[in-house]
Amino acid sequence: MTEDHHVILRVVAKLLIPLITLYAFYVHFHGEYSPGGGFQAGVIFAVAIILYSLIFGVPAALRAVPPVFARCLAAFGVLLYAGVGVAALLGGGNYLDYDALANDGPGEHVGQHLGIILIELGVLFGVAGSMLAIFYAFAGRVAEIRDEDW
Amino acid sequence: MNEAEVASIGLALINIFLLGILFVVGVAIARLRSLFAIVMLSGVYSLVSATWFVALDAVDVAFTEAAVGAGISTALMLGAMLLTARTAKATPKGSTLAPFVVVIATGIMLIYATFDLPALGDPNAPANAYVGAEYIERTYADTGLPNIVTAVLASYRGFDTLGEVVVVFAAGLGVALLLGFGERSLAVSLNKRDDQ
Amino acid sequence: MTEFIIERANYWAIIALMMVGLYIIFASQNLIKRLVGLSIFQTSVFLFYITLSKIAGGSAPILYGRDYPKSYGDDHSAAPGYDAVLAAGEVGVKEVYSNPLPHVLILTAIVVGVSTLAVGLALVVRIRESYGTIEADEVRDIDMGVAAAEEDEDAAQRASA
Q1: Pairwise CA distance, residues B50 & B61, whole Å
Q2: What are the beta bridge partners of residue C18?
Q3: Are C50 and C102 in contact (CB under 8 A)?
């Protein structure tokens, strides 16, 4: 039941999971130029770990990415987003006014680019952490239904 | 027949095809009793609607719907189904009449309301004429980003998006409060399995 | 008449999908099936919003071609800024784009939708653990049974006192 079955699934998953994670970051950093952004990247990042836990079992996933990491990731994401707003306040602008993040000349958009990448990173962490925490909450429950009921 | 007419007929054909698939899937969900099939078909429904979003130029929305609606929602619903039941109880005969009447009446009222809506693709519709057009014109000069959706989401409406992230965080917290964080219940289930 | 129908057929199809979702919510007693119906209804609302944002002949709202000049340099240090553009009277885009604003609203709504779905599923799991069923009418019957039993107990205590 354990080693003989699902060999192809395990090998393919080992190949795919790093690529999915990499793709999540591509979607995030390329979100300004093509479809994508923090929300999608966060969900894809969470899906990579969910795929791991579906194929290698939830205990293995819990060892690789502990739930406390998911929780802290979610909280850190929200704090990062809010922190960018505070940084803009300290820079002399309004809350979440990214132009205040950098000393832009007229027409320059360094602050905008920096601010958007940072808050999208906050969205990525927040969404990925929350989705992982939700998945772990469901996966960690004891299933009362036997396999024969299928 | 000029190029624009061909394009509009092509779009109409795509619309009919995809909406037809969506309707068939929806009716199948309404009639089925196996929860596994229902959950899987809801994933199919999300994926087909994502395809339709692409046909309507909403590429960012399509991406999100494919990742969130077809991916995460299906996984969560399967997880919840594993913890609850496999089949839905059959609805007794005759109890479907009242919902059917209510639904038909609501549908007729909504269709009556669409007579006043602007036509599909009308560039002068009130929804498209004012603030949306303003965003399209301003975005590149203001932010230097080509993707207007990202610019509006992250920069113009950044405060809004902060609220959304907090909502997602609160949902994660709420599920954890209802079901536990996962470690302890998993340890209990593993111990129980070892005892057997 | 045909033109009128073709221009609005999309709305009617979306309303039909909405009504399928509503019917599932009303007719089904199974809580998970109800949540699926709710998400079908929700997706139909998304489709309606996106339909309204479509502009005939437009493309996805990502600037391209003449609207996205590379001549501003990699760091956009040569970009004039909107005020300068306004002063030069060069306002306006040259290609046609669909309306981006509904896309933004729906993008965030999808993510919030999955969050509420997760909370709803968690509640269903707890209901299953407490009542042993996820059929709404059976849950109601159990509640009524418990309430009636408590009522009887109270009446018995009052009679003995």
Answers
A1: 8
A2: none
A3: yes
Residue window 35-64, chain C: list those with CB within 8 Å of chain B. Answer: 35-37, 39-40, 43, 46-47, 50-64
Using only C-alpha atoms, chain B has a radius of gyration, in whole angstroms, of 23
pTM of the predicted structure, to 2 decimals: 0.88
B3-12 CB contacts, 8 Å cutoff, 24+ apart: B4/C56, B4/C57, B7/C57, B8/B121, B8/C56, B11/B55, B12/C6, B12/C9
Size of interface A-C (CB pairs under 8 A): 38
Q: How confident is the model at residue B185 (pLDDT cuts 50, 70, 90)?
A: low
pLDDT on residue A1: 47
Q: What is the pLDDT of residue B144?
A: 78
Interface size between A and B, measured as CB pairs under 8 A:
185
**Which of these, B190, B174, B63, lies nearest to A47 by C-alpha position?**
B63
Closest partner residue to C62 (CB to CB) among A34, A39, A107 is: A34
Q: What is the DSSP letter of A142?
A: P
Q: So where are chain C's domains? A: 2-56+100-160, 63-96
C-alpha distance from residue C92 to each of B139, C64, C95 (Å): 11, 14, 9
Domain boundaries, chain A: 7-149
DSSP B146: S
The better pLDDT of the pair B37, A142 is held by B37
Q: Taking the CA of residue A11 as centre, how many other CA atoms within 13 Å lie in the half-sphere pointing to its CB?
A: 6
Distances (CA, A) of B69 to A75, C107, C110: 23, 11, 8
- The answer, for A137 touching chain C at a CB cutoff of 8 Å, is yes
pLDDT at residue A24 above 90? yes
Q: Closest approach of chain B CAs to the CA of A96, in angstroms?
A: 7
Phi, psi of B57 (to 5 degrees): 75, 5
Q: What is the CATH number of domain C2-56+100-160?
A: 1.10.287.3510
Q: Domains plus CATH for chain B?
A: 1-91 (1.20.120.1200)
Tell me the two tokens of residue A142. 């004891």
Beta bridge partners of B121: C55
